[in-house]
Amino acid sequence: MDTARIQVKAGNGGNGCISFRREKFVPRGGPDGGDGGNGGHIILIATLGMSTLIDLHHNPRQVAENGGHGTGKKRDGADGVDCVVKVPAGTIIRDFDTDETLADLTEPDQTVVVARGGIGGKGNARFKSSTFQAPRVAEKGEPGEAREIRLEVKLIADIGLVGYPNAGKSTLLARTSAATPKIAAYPFTTLRPNLGVVRINREQNFVLADIPGLIEGAHKGAGLGHQFLRHIERTKMLIHVIDLSATDGRDPIEDYEQLNLELDHYNALLTKLPQIIAVNKIDMPEAQANLARVQEYFGNRKIFPISAITGDGVNPLMQQAYRSLQYLETRARKEAETTITLEPELPPEPSARFELIETEEGFLVTGAEPRRAVLMTDMENEQALILLYRKLKNMGVINALARAGAVEGDTVQIDEFEFTYSPKAMQSS
Ligand SMILES: Nc1nc2c(ncn2[C@@H]2O[C@H](COP(=O)(O)OP(=O)(O)OP(=O)(O)O)[C@@H](O)[C@H]2O)c(=O)[nH]1
Ligand SMILES: [Mg+2]
Q: Quick one: pLDDT at residue 190?
């Protein structure tokens, strides 16, 4: 399994600007400070043709651009550019601290915002009102989200090995990959799907899955079959392994037909998956004897005689499998290009809810919205404090404090800031 741990930091919102129009003959014009731009998000996108997180091991810190600050003449700051990080399809994303699963990106081009950019602060032009002709106040940009995330690439099998019990699926997987499945001379030896990476050469490889338990009745939930069949649904194609030696008085052609019937019963879509036919155990004399008859049954369709034990014929089979897979992927990519990519879905806006907690010194206010309001306030600026007071009042925080029995002089803590509760002072301003 391939994993990575990275820090992500979305862009901060730009600050709003405090500025006044300067015109000839006008000593001091109206407020014209522009808004700050929004910070860029950190977006992960599932990407076809990528299989590892190696790039992220080299870049464990991903930062999106900050929004530009607003300037005079009502010029708004530019929005920060999103930071788009490519990950393989099949990546699970979790919050490192809470272990919460943020996304499971299985399909190519699927996206998730893992850190939301801060919103830009409003410039002073926005605060002008009949009673507030020359606002010397602007909001600060909201800080972008920062978190640590853990990525994990699940192997998703490209090709599934199916076949009657004892056909030699596990032997073939062991022969072609580093996987070490259990192999034995009795049916139903394999109890769990095994996966292995088949390397054609340095750059070309695919994931092969040994899918056990396909027998008559599997589609009804009998035997081992049912739960494993799910694994085949995600593969792009199948290698159907047939025991050509016909041990235990079975017949290769009957085995083949019965297995296809099982696939069809479970999910008719499975029969639409391309199949490559591998006839196994060609090292046995009985198999040689059956070859002509089986080839005749398949007519012009190419079959691959192999011996999973000696390795005979296995390379041509895997090369054909890789070529077919490439063809299927190219076709899927072309189809994907003609579909419209949707805008990434943003997590819901922080809710306006807050909580009021009585402490020994006074009160503690928690909640995303009050926190955001505080973070966007320039505490050095008296008018900004008045603005903050109004925002808190609109949210219902001030009323809630009064109801909870706050009195002049109490300490009110929001995020890391402490305020003195003084409604009288605020009402007069
Ligand atoms: N002679 C010969 N025997 C083989 C060959 N491939 C597999 N076998 C034998 O066939 C038996 C079953 O092989 P497995 O690889 O376990 O078969 P499987 O399809 O995984 O079987 P289940 O997991 O039980 O469904 C074992 O005894 C293998 O040694 C082959 O190419 N030639
Ligand atoms: Mg097996």
A: 73
- The total number of structural domains that make up the chain: 3
Q: CATH number of the domain that 54 lies in?
A: 2.70.210.12
Determine the pLDDT at residue 14. 98
Do 210 and 329 have their domain in common? yes
Let me know how many helices (H) and strands (E) the chain has, helices first: 10, 18
Are 291 and 316 within one domain? yes
- Residue 332 sits in the same domain as residue 362: no
Q: Domain range spanning residue 310? A: 159-337
Residue among 162, 164, 170 whose CB has most ligand 1 atoms within 8 A, to mutate: 170
Cα-to-centroid distance, 176 and ligand 1 (Å): 14
Kindly state whether residue 344 falls inside one of the protein's structural domains.
no
Residues 414 and 310 in one domain: no
Question: How far does the centroid of ligand 2 lie from the alpha carbon of residue 198, in Å?
Answer: 17
The reply to whether 346 falls in a domain is no
Nearest ligand 1 atom to the CA of 183 is 16
Return the ligand number nearest the Cα of 175. 1
User: What residues flank ligand 1, with Cβ below 6 Å?
Assistant: 163, 165-171, 183-185, 187-190, 212, 280-281, 283-284, 307-309
pLDDT per position as a tens digit, 173-199 = 999 988 888 887 777 777 677 888 899
Considering every ligand atom, which ligand is closest to the CA of 313?
1
Q: Are residues 362 and 318 in the same domain?
A: no
Taking the centre of ligand 2 as the mean of its atom positions, its distance from the CA of residue 137, in whole angstroms, is 72
Mean pLDDT computed over 334-339 = 69
CA 209 to centroid of ligand 2, rounded, Å: 11
342 inside domain = no
Q: Which ligand is in closest contact with the Cα of 312?
A: 1
CA 198 to ligand 1 center in whole angstroms: 19
Per-residue pLDDT at 269 exceeds 90? no
**Predicted confidence (pLDDT) per residue in 368-388, tens digit:** 889 999 999 999 998 898 889
Count other C-beta atoms under 10 Å from residue 273's C-beta: 19
Residues 6 or more apart from 210 whose CB is under 8 A from it? 161, 169, 170, 172, 173, 179, 181, 190, 193, 194, 195, 196
Query: Residue 392, SS3?
Result: helix
118 with 219, same domain? no
The reply to whether 347 falls in a domain is no
How deeply is 359 buried, as exposed, middle or buried, from its count of CB atoms within 10 A (0-12, 13-18, 19+)?
exposed
| Closest C-alpha residue for ligand 1 atom 8 | 168
Match 């901060």 to its residue by tokens: 12
Q: pTM for this structure?
A: 0.62
